[in-house]
Amino acid sequence: MNFYDLSVERTDGTQLQMSEFEGKVVLVVNTATGCGFTPHYKPLEEMYEKYHDQGFEIVDVPCNQFAGQTPGNDEEIHEFCTLNYNTQFPQMKKADVNGETAIELFRYLKSQKGFEGFGKGVKALAMSAMLKKIDKDYKNNSEIKWNFTKFLVDKKGNVVARFEPTADMAKVEECVAQLMQA
Question: Which residues are named in the active-site annotation (predicted)?
Answer without folding.
Answer: 35
